[in-house]
Design brief:
transferase; 10 strands; Glutamine--fructose-6-phosphate aminotransferase [isomerizing]; binds 5-amino-5-deoxy-1-O-phosphono-D-mannitol; alpha/beta; about 375 residues; five-stranded parallel sheet; aminotransferase
Length: about 375
């Protein structure tokens, strides 16, 4: 059932190209230039009446929601807040009937996420669920349901569910932007064209797993490391850090690159590994200056860049890994893949039970 892979996690990482294709399938027009989401029952008038969006989820699904916030805000200019469900449900969030609440859950059974959904409905909000499991509690109780077609995810560490959630957010963001007229159809068609290249681009990333295995084996000798990034790179940094902690048990922190000098820089000392995500052209200069700050204190920096910027960034880092070139909006769907592989190989190098990390369950159905 592991189809020749040593672990479910590795199998699921390799299933991502298929998960991307399957999640897009049936959701594009015949000419591939626009998004159609038949599962969304909101009328154009209902979409126009959305005043704000709350995205609520736990763990990795929350990290997908952080990217979702940036996608929806960027494409529609509707204000979006992303919260962890265990905080949201107890902070008496301001939910009105004009709020669209998006809950994200691979399993559709996470207790806190389900409770947040119920709270949102009680306040009269419309709830849209992004989930991987048809018939799950979340899918039965939400008003609209987008199923991520990732297929069953067995490993505790979520991989293909996360990236399929990103695809769902891109499709949703484009759909809303089209309905609201905040983006023109030519621009939308260009993004969709780039999205359709993602599966092959993931395949090409996967073919470089040997390089990442070596990186992971040297990281596995450390007890602490940092991930840094800005914007969506920061969101992906948080997911990379969680993945690494969860299965390798190496302590790591993800920091918004610009926040370092407000405290965390004190922890940077000789030889400490820093993984810097630097895929957003408009933020290059800023992140590069943060990379210089950590390097000046002896950090060993691995830079993850969007294809084409190798020369520009290469001078400032110790090691470089380039993802295939894609639009800045879409880089999370590629840049997370090397981080998944680094976590996997670091866990392997440490002799851990990759698929069943200590203290954790696949689905958290109690508070
Ligand atoms: O099934 P869900 O998506 O609701 O699960 C949420 C989290 O428990 C889950 O993503 C967890 O963080 C993963 N083990 C991370 O890899």
């Amino acid at each position: 059932e592991k189809a020749g892979f040593e672990h479910f996690m590795l199998k699921e990482i390799y299933e991502q190209p298929k998960a991307y294709r399957d999640t897009m399938m049936g959701r594009l027009s015949d000419d591939g230039r626009s998004v159609q989401l038949k599962e969304i029952g909101m009328t154009p008038d209902q979409i126009k009446s959305i005043r704000n969006v709350h995205i609520v989820a736990c763990g990795t699904a929350y990290h997908a929601g952080l990217v979702g916030k940036s996608v929806i805000e960027n494409l529609t200019r509707i204000p979006v807040e992303t919260d962890v469900a265990s905080e949201y449900r107890y902070r008496s969030p301001i939910i009105t009937p004009e709020t669209l609440v998006i809950v994200v859950s691979q399993s559709g059974e996470t207790a806190d996420t389900l409770a947040a959904l119920r709270e949102a409905k009680r306040c009269g909000a419309r709830v849209l669920a992004i989930t991987n499991v048809v018939g799950s509690s979340v899918s039965r109780e939400a008003d609209d349901v987008m199923i991520t077609q990732a297929g069953p995810e067995i490993a505790v560490a979520s991989t293909k569910a996360y990236t399929s959630q990103l695809i769902a957010f891109y499709l949703l963001g484009l759909y809303l932007a089209d309905s609201l007229g905040t983006r023109d159809s030519e621009w939308i068609a260009e993004v969709l064209e780039a999205m359709q290249q993602l599966p092959e681009q993931v395949e090409s990333l996967l073919s470089q797993s040997n390089v990442l295995k070596q990186v992971a084996e040297s990281l596995a000798k450390h007890d602490n490391l940092f991930f840094i990034g800005r914007g969506t790179d920061f969101a992906v940094a948080q997911e990379g850090s969680l993945k690494l902690k969860e299965i390798s048990y190496i302590h790591s922190e993800a920091y918004a690159a610009g926040e370092l000098k407000h405290g965390t820089l004190a922890l940077i000392e000789e030889g400490i590994p820093v993984i810097a995500l630097i895929t957003q052209e408009d933020l290059y200069e800023k992140t590069l200056s943060n990379i210089k700050e950590v390097k000046a204190r002896g950090a060993h920096v691995l830079g993850i860049v969007n294809g084409g910027s190798e020369i520009e960034v290469g001078k400032s880092v110790d090691e470089l890994f380039a993802i295939p070139k894609t639009l800045p909006l879409l880089t999370p769907a590629l840049s997370v893949v090397p981080l998944q592989l680094i976590a996997y190989y670091a866990s392997l190098a440490r002799g851990n039970d990759v698929d069943k990390p200590r203290n954790l369950a696949k689905s958290v159905t109690v508070e």
